[in-house]
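Reopening this one. Same input as before:
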Amino acid sequence: MDSLKNHIDLKPMRVWSENSVKGTLLLCFLAQVIVSMVRYEMPELRKRSTRFIIDSLQNLTVTYVHDRKQATRRIYSNFEPLNSRILRDIVVVSGVSGG
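Same output, byte for byte:
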C-alpha cells in the first residue's frame, strides 16, 4: 500500500461516485502490478524503487499511424535506455509486439 500511496500517486481523489473511486483504485493497482512485473522480469531492476521505474517510463510516447491499406505502425519516442530495455525484453517476449 505504501507504494500505491507514495509512488503511484494514490492521493485524496477528486471523484465522488463509487464507480469512479473503484476505477481510480483499479488503475493505480494495475500500474503497481505492471511495475512489479517489470521488476520481476528484469533482475537489474529488482533493487530499484517504483519511483525510479515510473520516472523512466513516464515520458515514453507511442503513436499509432494507420495507413490507407489499414496497416498500423507504432512509432515510439522519448526513449530513455530503460524504456528501450523494457520494450525489447518485456513487450516482445509477452507477444505484444507488432509493427
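So the earlier flakiness isn't reproducible anymore. For the record, Residues 93-99 have pLDDT under 50 and may be disordered.
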